[in-house]
Amino acid sequence: MGLFDRISRVVRANLNDVVSKAEDPEKILEQTVIDMQEDLVQLRQAVAQAIASQKRSQQQYNQYQSQANQWLSRAQLALQKGDENLAREALQRKKSYEEQANTIKATLDQQTTQVDTLKRNLIQLESKISEAKTKKNMLKARAQAAKANEQLQGMMSGIDPGRGMAAFDRMEEKVLQMEARSQAAGELAGSDLESQFKALEAGSGVDDELEALKANMLGPGKTQGSLPAGETNSAPQTSAQKSEVDSELEELRKQLDNL
Q1: Full pLDDT tens readout for the chain, 259 residues
Q2: Which of 16, 193, 231, 251 lies at a 20 to 30 A Cα distance from 2?
Q3: How many helices (H) and strands (E) does the chain have?
Q4: Cα(131)–Cα(164) distance, rounded to whole angstroms?
């Protein structure tokens, strides 16, 4: 194989590859239908011209045939009148028109066959164009669906589901932390206020009870720190007194615990 043949083959291969990649199914289908419609227009024009020629030939044939019949009638009339020479001349004219009519008849038969063939081809082409349009729409829909699916697959291939879910997990954890901090802040604020009121209530109740207890223990006419008559600070408490005090203290503890 020569160098030029190899170069030619490489060039053709590259051109074919470029053309194949540049072919868009939708555009090719549209152009194909347009080309078929242009062929249909040309074929219709050809059929129309053939029919027109056929009609002209038919008219000429009819005229020649009419002239031949007319000269035949004249030849018969000349014979009836006894003029054979005139009759012979009329028959020669008749024969001339018949020959012309026969020539036109051969042409007319060819034109008739041609017109019939063109009409069949026209009907077939119209049927093919109708079929091509239907198929074109189907192929275009399939091509569009394939393109959409290819684009979708390309988009999906660039998406990392694990990375996306990890981001959602991180954001969910942050939201949970924010909710926990908000809930804790609310509980702290509520517990601080509640504790302050409870402290006030508890303090007031203990003070009041303590004062009432002091008044009850001191009795009327006694002051805080004084002792009953006849008793000194050095006198030891009896077991009954200790038991009474312990009972009071125990009762006081229970009351404080119930607060």
Answers
A1: 566 666 666 666 666 555 555 567 778 888 888 888 898 899 899 899 999 999 999 999 999 999 999 999 999 999 898 888 999 999 999 999 999 999 999 999 999 999 999 999 999 989 988 888 888 888 888 877 887 887 777 776 766 656 666 777 788 888 888 888 887 776 666 566 666 666 666 655 566 777 777 777 765 555 444 444 444 444 455 566 567 767 777 777 777 666 6
A2: 16
A3: 5, 0
A4: 49
The angle at the Cα of 171, spanning 168 to 174, to the nearest 5 degrees, equals 150
DSSP 179-191: HHHHHHHHHHHHH
d(CA 227, CA 232): 7
Please enumerate in sequence order all residues whose Cβ is within 8 A of that of 108, keeping only pairs 6 or more positions apart, or say none: 54, 57, 58, 61
Q: Residues 82-90: contacts with CB within 8 Å, 24+ apart? A: none
